[in-house]
Structures are given as C-alpha cells and as structure tokens.
DNA sequence: GAGACGTGGGG
DNA sequence: TCCCCAAGTCT
C-alpha cells in the first residue's frame, strides 16, 4: 500500500490532468483494451489513436477480427511498426473465439496464453479491463518508481525480483484502488516524469521524490542498450512491408527489389517476412500480404 | 539473457 | 544529422 503522501496527491493529479483516451472510457470493452495495449507496445499514443478508432469501428469484437485474412489486418496496422504484433493480435482474436467463447479471458494464465500478451499486457488487462489488482510494470511505472523510491534516474536494463517486489509493496490492496494507482503512475510517467526531460516543477509528488531529494544525480547504473536501425534487416523489412501494404494487387519481384541495393540482405529480409507470415509468395514469383485479394494473379 | 523486431517525432 | 525515445514480446 503506498503511503498516503504519495497516493492522495497522485490520484488528485490524475483526476485533474489525465488524458481522455477512448480505451479508458466508461464504455470500454476488454477487447478494446487488448487492442490498445498491443498497439501501444513500443508505439506512442498519438500514432495509435487514429488506428485504434478505425480498428474498433471495423472490428468491434474478437470474432470480427478473427474472420479477416491476416493480410488485411496487417494492412490496417499501417505504420504502427513491428507488424508481427498485428499478426499476434489476429491470432489472439482467433484464440478468443476458439477457446474462450468469443470473449477476452480474464484469468492471468489464460491471458498469458494469448499470442502477444506478456507480463506487462496481462497485468494491464487484469487491471484496466477487469478491474483486478495486478502489478503493472511498464517502462513508465519502472521509471517513476526508480526516481520516487530508489533515487535512480532510470531503472535497471532488466526487471528483477526486487523491483517487482518493490512495485507490489506500494500497490494498493484493493482491486479498484490498485487499478487507479497503476494507471495514474503510468500517466505521470508519460506526461510529467518523462525519460529525457522530466517536469519536476509540475509533479504532484516531487516533494517526496528520492531522486529530487538527492539533487537529480545522473544515471550511473549498467549500460542501457541502444538499438541500431539504419542499415539493419529491420529497415529493409520495413521498406518491403510498405510496398506490400500499399499494393492492392500482387507485387512483381522487381518492385520489391527496388527498395534496397544489397541483394543478399534484401533476400534475407524478404525470406524472413515470408517465414513470419507477413508476406506470401505466389506461384508466379509475385508477393502479397497473406490471404488478401482472393484472386491468384496469372 | 542478449538480440531481433518498425516507425516517426523531438531535442 | 544523429541519437534518444515510445504502455514489450519472443526466441
């Protein structure tokens, strides 16, 4: 249970300053929360918002999404990035239909069995969709608790048992309060206690923040991993997928070859997309998003 | 447990 | 321009 000097001001701040996001609305559904959580894995809210609205309009239930060919789902995913998430969401929808009566399940182990649902997303669904107490530990919560409680500017590169226990120790005991606490801490991390330039002057709990009390010391923990992108297979895959998404007929190989000069890397990337189920090779040497179109171009 | 996996905005 | 960053998951 968080001490009241943290709990009360944070909840007051959340009531006054949180964003009105549709997946938090009173009429939200577990399915809508699941879609939002998967889309928000590594993608900012502003970019997710329009895509989420369109998805919920087209596919308001797991069954609606499950009935689509995977390629159509990948196309609607657009430029959110990491399109394998779209495939996993499609598979998760099918699992809901086949195994859970068309509903998003509410038991943690059932949630964890869904493709694309890991520790974080499972806890987020427990908490935000079903109103149950769960330790929600995403990058925002980790950063806020690191600063507030341990005085470190950033959390360690990987979650360990001690960090999870600390998060659990400040989580309210009751379901409703726990869910509210988690979403409020997340929101504080997203809007105020940001990674690069926190607005401590606007923070409702800066008076009791350990990191502030220590004079905001620079991070001195283990090296934090940096991701390369330019020149990687990931960049090539992205370009290939952009061509396939925008095409509404099977794509001739030369159109794919045009996106990258290095043939070895290009073929490796394309093979990877096929292996992942993101691209479908046709008999005539053309490619398309999996299952779309129906007609086999001759 | 390290590395793979997209995309685009901001400093 | 370059680098960091954004509600992680999977292998």
UniProtKB/TrEMBL annotation:
Pfam family, one: HhH-GPD
Metal-binding in keyword set: yes
Top-level taxonomy: Bacteria, Bacillati, Actinomycetota, Actinomycetes, Sporichthyales
UniProt xrefs under InterPro entries: DNA_glycosylase, Endonuclease3_FeS-loop_motif, HhH-GPD_domain, HhH_base_excis_C, MIG/MutY
SMART domains for this protein: ENDO3c, FES
All copies of domain HhH-GPD, residue ranges: 39-191
Record's keyword terms, sorted: DNA damage, DNA repair, Glycosidase, Hydrolase, Iron, Iron-sulfur, Metal-binding
Classification via SUPFAM superfamilies: DNA-glycosylase (SSF48150)
Similarity remark: Belongs to the Nth/MutY family.
Cofactor(s) the protein needs: [4Fe-4S] cluster
Protein name: A/G-specific adenine glycosylase
């Amino acid at each position: 249970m968080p001490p009241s000097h943290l709990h009360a001001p944070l909840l007051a701040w959340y009531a006054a300053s949180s964003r009105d996001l549709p997946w938090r609305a009173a009429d939200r559904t577990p399915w809508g929360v699941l879609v939002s959580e998967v889309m928000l894995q590594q993608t900012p809210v502003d970019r997710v918002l329009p895509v989420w609205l369109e998805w919920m309009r087209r596919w308001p239930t797991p069954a609606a999404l499950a009935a689509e060919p995977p390629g159509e789902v990948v196309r609607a995913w657009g430029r959110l990035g990491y399109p394998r998430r779209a495939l996993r969401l499609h598979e998760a929808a099918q699992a809901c239909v086949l195994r859970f009566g068309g509903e998003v399940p509410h038991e943690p182990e059932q949630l964890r069995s869904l493709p694309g649902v890991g520790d974080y997303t499972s806890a987020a669904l427990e908490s935000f969709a079903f109103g149950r107490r769960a330790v929600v530990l995403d990058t925002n919560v980790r950063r806020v608790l690191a600063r507030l409680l341990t005085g470190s500017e950033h959390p360690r590169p990987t979650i360990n048992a001690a960090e999870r226990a600390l998060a659990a120790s400040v989580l309210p005991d009751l379901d409703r309060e726990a869910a509210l606490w988690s979403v409020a801490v997340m929101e504080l991390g997203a809007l105020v206690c940001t990674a690069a330039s926190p607005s401590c002057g606007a923070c409702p709990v800066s008076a009791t923040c350990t990191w502030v009390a220590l004079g905001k010391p620079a991070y001195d923990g283990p090296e934090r991993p940096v991701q390369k992108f330019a020149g990687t297979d990931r960049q090539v895959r992205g370009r290939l997928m952009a061509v396939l998404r925008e095409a509404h007929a099977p794509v001739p190989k030369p159109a794919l070859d045009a996106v990258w000069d290095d043939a070895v890397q290009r073929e490796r990337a394309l093979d990877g997309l096929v292996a992942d189920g993101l691209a479908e090779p046709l008999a005539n040497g053309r490619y398309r998003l999996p299952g779309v179109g129906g007609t086999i171009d001759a």
